[in-house]
Amino acid sequence: MKLLHVVGARPNFPKLAPVHRAGCAAGASQVVVHTGQHYDDDMSGRFIRDLGIPSPDINLAVGSDTHAVQTARIMERIEPVLIAQRPDWVVVYGDVNSTMAAAVVASKLGIRVAHVEAGLRSFDRTMPEEINRIVTDRLADLLLTPSRDASAQLRAEGEPEDEIEFVGNVMIDSLFHALPAARATRFREKIGVNGSAVVVTLHRPSNVDDPGRIRALAAALNEAALEREVVFPTHPRTRLRLEEAGLRMDRVHMLEPVGYLEMLDLVERAFAVVTDSGGLQEETTALGVPCLTVRSNTERPITISQGTNRLVPHPGDIATELRRVRRPTDRPRPEGWDGHAGERVIAALMQRT
Ligand code: UD1
Fold first, then answer.
1. Cα(140)–Cα(113) distance, rounded to whole angstroms?
2. How far is the CA of 128 from the centre of ligand 1 (A)?
3. Could you say which of 38, 91, 211, 347 is the most buried, measured as most Cβ atoms within 10 Å of its Cβ?
4. Within 10 A of 148 (CB to CB), how many other CB atoms are there?
5. Of all protein residues, whose CA lies closest to atom 19 belonging to ligand 1?
6. How far apart are CA 83 and CA 109, in angstroms?
7. Residue nearest to atom 13 of ligand 1 (CA)
8. d(Cα 116, Cα 332) in Å, to the nearest integer?
9. Could you read off the pLDDT of 132-141 as tens digits, one per residue?
10. pTM of this prediction?
């Protein structure tokens, strides 16, 4: 079985790692294509090293641009690669532009597409990721879902039963695999975090691209920092927007983007996480760390119904909500978030090859 994995942006790498590992163990022939959607070492190379993924075989070096230009560039550059490689499956991950672009090109070439993390829906088409999810799922030949509700959603959309397979959450495979190495970084101690801090990540255009919204978020984090240490590794998009708006958060411990292992060390022992990231909603649920998601919706409702997540749509409510959070005493974990999802992905692919 020959697999061609397509990744491009930071959240793709922890999803690829366990599938690639399981593919190696099963003797699959594997090619990794990096689109170059993310290119800074902080957003890409460091994650690949932290996760033990082999260096990508091919890098399309598309870089940043508008959605249309970036997507078009990926499509243009990946087409000859797929023609030359002719894999049994193109495996795409998550909901970034690279995911959708590769799915469109592979489908038109008649190469089967498997989508890892299929069936998630925020029902909010102002999110570019929602469009990427819908297009990718419509085209994919195998829909590998992280939760039963995602499988149910795909059925409701009319996807054939034999194309849907519940495999569980590959992100959580990476999390369990990396925890010992994450703890060994002693990153928290290195940056002088003493008590249990609030860890913040924000990068969604809906939060950071609107000057009024980012101002309200900065004020909320400054307020929270009066009561508890707040640590904020900043995505490049967010840093740029903060600079443009002339915003400073003097009380907040601002960091450059951190690696996968360092982030895990911060998050595992956090008092709470404040985020708009999809991955962190899942990771906090698996670790039993309270999570406040600064959005009005989530494509991962299981992190609310069976996890530690709570939606906080208004930045002005963050400080109050932080005063209310409690660490759960037991750690409920959704079905299939057990560290073996990557193996189930490979089994599903082999069964159909
Ligand atoms: C992308 C994904 C988003 C994911 C996020 C994780 C889409 C539509 N969005 O958003 O779903 O949650 O990645 O990070 O695919 N930049 C750098 N260096 C880099 C990459 C980006 O400086 O290595 C800067 C550039 O100014 C760029 C901006 O960040 O314009 C945004 O990058 P882009 O990949 O367009 O979107 P993200 O916000 O990262």
1. 5
2. 12
3. 91
4. 15
5. 38
6. 8
7. 9
8. 23
9. 999 999 999 9
10. 0.97
